[in-house]
Amino acid sequence: MFENIRYHLLLHFIIFIWGFTGILGKLIHLESLSIVWWRVVIAFLALGIYLKVINWNFKVNSRKQLYGILGVGVLVSLHWILFYKSIQLSTASLGILCLSTTTLHVTWLEPLIMKRRFLLSEFISGILIICSLIYVSGDFSTTDYTALFIGLASALMAALFSVFNAKLVIDNPSQTISFYEFGIAVVFLSVLLAFEGRLNYSLFVMTTTDLLWLLFLGIVCTSFAFLVVIDLVKRLGAFTVSLSINMEPVYTIFLAIAILNENARLSNKFYIGAAIIVTIVVLNAIIKYRMKQKNARAFEKN
Predict the structure, then answer these.
(1) Between the CA of residue 78 and those of 10, 121, 157, 187, 240, what are the distances in Å?
(2) Burial 234-264 (b: 16+ CB within 10 A, else e)
(3) Based on the number of CB atoms within 10 Å of its own CB, is 167 exposed (0-12), middle (13-18) or buried (19 or more)?
(4) Phi and psi of 265, rounded to 5°?
(5) 204/262 Cα distance (integer angstroms)
(6) CA of 238: how far to CAs of 3, 69, 197, in Å?
(7) Which residue, among 218, 283, 284, 277, has the nearest Cα to 96 in the 3D structure?
(8) From CA 104, how far away is CA 109, in angstroms rounded?
(9) pLDDT in tens, the chain (302 residues)
């Protein structure tokens, strides 16, 4: 019992760390593309060193799947760029709230990509989330609206790589997938920086504080957190982990209030809408889990 509690506490510690990634978009004084480049470079090196130490097999099941993994790595890069751009234009609270709509995109992407049937409950959840976002955006400025659309685009990228990864992980270990996704992300982002004329010495000019935050973002928030969650999924189950991850927006908003004083900028309307969206996402996960259990029992009877 106590061991199980320990795993739950560790899980929420990791989710708390993930909630902090949005705050880092404000604390690190670099442009969003530079932040993401450093994040994937550090994460790629840290994960690669760890996997090499444990003599990990980096082999991918097929060349076709390798190409798929590399494509998803580009989606991961775009997701993080848009996510941090949204935060820098507005607030960490808005950026993470937009990210919570990832579930909405998954509702129509999974039937197309994973060939599963469309669920009415997910469609209704999506409509409610859209209504909540409209309610939240009532007092937004022009810049906030721009951040909102960029944040929603970030959520779409997150949904795409989540669904594609769910398909790829059937035949390949998630550690291998992440290693190659981080690797192609480094290449892709380096090309973008070179195209903008920014892949030069200026990329390495930063304060000591920014460097420490980047190391924390790349090693702790990305590589370490990912490896711990893989182990926790095995111990607690995928549903428990996925349901708990829905707490990330809550942690981010509390951190944004405590560290960035964002409550002075955002109205009560925003927090009411945020609470509704998080509740919808959690309830949707519970409904899906119960439907899955019901279908499993029906299958056993037959």
Answers:
(1) 29, 29, 7, 13, 28
(2) eebeeebbebbbbbbbbbbbebbbeebebbe
(3) middle
(4) -100, -30
(5) 30
(6) 18, 22, 43
(7) 277
(8) 9
(9) 456 778 888 888 998 999 889 899 999 999 999 999 999 999 999 999 999 999 998 988 888 999 999 999 999 999 999 999 999 999 898 888 888 888 777 777 777 776 667 677 777 777 787 788 777 776 788 898 999 999 999 999 988 888 888 788 888 888 999 999 999 999 999 999 999 999 999 999 999 999 999 999 999 999 999 888 878 877 877 667 766 777 888 888 888 888 988 887 777 888 888 888 888 877 777 776 677 677 666 655 65
Amino acid code (one letter) for 33: L
Amino acid at 214: L
AA letter at 160? L
The pair of structure tokens assigned to 11 is: 């899980």
Predicted TM-score (pTM) of the model is: 0.86
SS3 62: coil
For CA atoms 184, 185, 188, 189, the dihedral sign is negative
